[in-house]
Amino acid sequence: MMKLMGWAIALAAAALTPAAAGAQTPQAAEPQATAAAPAPAAPPADAAAATAAPAIDYAAPTPGIGVPDGRMGLQDQVTEVGQQAASFHDNWLLMLCVVISLFVLALLAWTIFRYRRGANPTPARTSHNTVIEVVWTLVPVLILVAIAVPSIRLIRAQYSPPPADLTVKVIGNQWYWTYQYPDNGGFEIVSNMLKEQKDVKAGDRFRTDADGPPLLAADERMVIPAGKVVKFIVTSNDVIHAFAMPAFWTKIDANPGRLNETWVKVDRPGVYFGQCSELCGARHGYMPIAIEVVPEATFNAWLAAKGGTPKGAAPAVEPGAPAAEPAPAVEVPAVEQPATNQAATAQN
Ligand SMILES: [Cu+2]
Questions:
Q1: Distance from residue 148's CA to the centre of ligand 1 (Å)
Q2: How much distance in Å is there from the Cα of 285 to the middle of ligand 1?
Q3: How remote is the CA of residue 141 from the centroid of ligand 1, in Å?
Q4: Which of 71, 140, 145, 290 could form a disulfide with 221 if both were Cys (CB 3.0 to 4.6 A apart)?
Q5: Ligand 1 centre and the CA of 218: distance in Å?
Q6: How would you class 210 by CB atoms within 10 Å of its CB: exposed for 0-12, middle for 13-18, buried for 19 or more?
Q7: Distance (Å, rounded) from C-alpha 174 to C-alpha 345?
């Protein structure tokens, strides 16, 4: 009985592993209290003064959503797959583990007390009991089936994405991320961690609380539209990195020479933070991922500011709709991304 229940628990734990992998260890632990930015929609006031001003007003982080806040357990999930997975983990797997563990503990305690030598001087010589043997075989099988069915359903949801509205190619580099938008003219965003004020030269841009927590804030965020299916093609330029965004239930390796694919659909506008999650060298801990989810009009404005175009811009005029409006006026002129990653070069 014990042995089989042990196997059942081990298998349950194995089934749990992908779920646990989605959880983020809040590595930037100490700054989280200070990361609570005032208002979710407050634009970073000082951004304009910086050398690399973002093309749109970035959202300030919302405490507790998309930002690690030191709590135990999973971050609040903002994708449907993430919500399913978190619920599967919290309400089913974890509960099952607790119930099985308590049951085994109770059996153990009962055996120790009831059948100790003092209370039971002549041990029974029973060696077979058909009913119990059938039960301890069938019950674990049923438990595993009860885990496997929702688990496989979740895997199917994760790996059979709906048709993508947008594709972003995510490339890991030592030690920063680049994001390419092949559907939108193929421009590229270079995203570096924002340093603290004490670590930069006078006049250089540094992190503020509106940018995000220390070690998680990035100078350029990946911007994606809200409510759209976004496909991430993930690869690397050098060593293995991993593209992880805990609030999206997304974690996938970035392998040089290979393309991995994952997808998200986020309805809630805002900024979300993740990190490279594969030990990739000396500055592994300094290549955060910041994703800004914005309404589509803002996304198009951002595209225009980056020199990109909406997907299928020219032919895509819906019948009956007025001629495609030009992207809303953007004050910041379109600036070419520098060919070299100066910030990364400077810090490496
Ligand atoms: Cu990395």
A1: 32
A2: 8
A3: 40
A4: 290
A5: 14
A6: buried
A7: 10
CB neighbours of residue 121 within 10 Å = 7
Neighbours of 112 (CB within 10 A): 9
Per-residue pLDDT tens for 35-64?
444 444 444 444 334 444 557 788 888 888
Residues 129-157 have pLDDT tens digits of 999 999 999 999 999 999 999 999 999 99
Reported pTM: 0.70
Beta strands in the chain (DSSP E): 166-173, 176-181, 187-191, 222-225, 229-236, 241-245, 250-254, 260-265, 270-276, 288-294
Cβ-based neighbours of 232, under 8 Å, separated by 6 or more? 167, 168, 169, 170, 243, 250, 252, 261, 262, 263, 264
- Alpha carbon of 177 to ligand 1 centroid (Å): 8
Cα torsion angle, 98, 103, 108, 114, sign: positive
DSSP letter for each residue of 247-279 = GGTEEEEE-BT--EEEEEE--S-EEEEEEE-S-
In one-letter notation, the amino acid at residue 73 is G
Q: Which amino acid is at 210?
A: A
